[in-house]
Amino acid sequence: MGGTETDIPLLVDGKRNDGRTIDQMRPVKIEAGVLERADGSAYVELGETHAIAAVYGPKEMHPRHALIPNKGVLKVRYSMLPFSVGDRKRPGPDRRSREIAKVTREAFESVVLLDKYPRSAIEIDINIMQADAGTRVVGLTAASVALADAGIAMTDLISSCASGKIEDTVVLDLNGLEDNCGQADVPIAMTGKGEQIALMQMDGLMTKEELNQAMEYAVTGCKELHKAQVDALRRRYQ
Ligand code: UDP
Q1: Which of 39, 47, 112, 222 could be bridged to 159 by S-S, CB 3.0 to 4.6 A?
Q2: With a threshold of 0.85, does the pTM exceed it?
Q3: Closest residue (by CA) to atom 3 of ligand 1?
């Protein structure tokens, strides 16, 4: 949420700067099993935000002192590749990437059956190849498909998208310009069958009514993504 000023109108007669309606998500593309060497992988595009996720494991836990005898450990790494943004991004972890990795891990801890993997680690590696807002939600959506592709036992898939507020209007799935110049951003992750919220964050301010509307839009978005995730996994194993 940059709060940056722009001369480009964000909303004209109910249409956004990229031609979408307020409750419309950017075009979605999901592919499962895109990497030969990983145990599971997925590529997800949501408009101009592109992410690839790889899953390794279950494997031996390192460092040994961090292993948990009766359950597995999820390790999540999130990185924005140097060429993913306009100004070259300095490689390596920073505060933001650690925060995104943490909330992503917590979301997956609610669905991965870690009891089935004692003394083991499952590594989730999320790389943002191109960023135009919503990288954490696209990364999460990709990681969920990669976990399923790796055959990791889960109670449900997780789908994730964000709602936001631009020009005092709640909209679904902010693009980069909207994120930069908008008033609020609410990333949400939801389980596919159970419709349980696995992640919810908020940047900016919304009224209670606006937040309810944002939730409503995001739930619809997550359902659309869930369908695309299942389709991608079906195509992979057909
Ligand atoms: N962004 C950027 N450089 C950075 C971090 C973010 O250009 O170092 C841009 C990028 O387009 C990203 C957006 O700002 O998608 C919003 O970032 P935020 O931290 O809100 O997370 P996201 O919406 O990507 O999950």
Answers
A1: 222
A2: yes
A3: 85
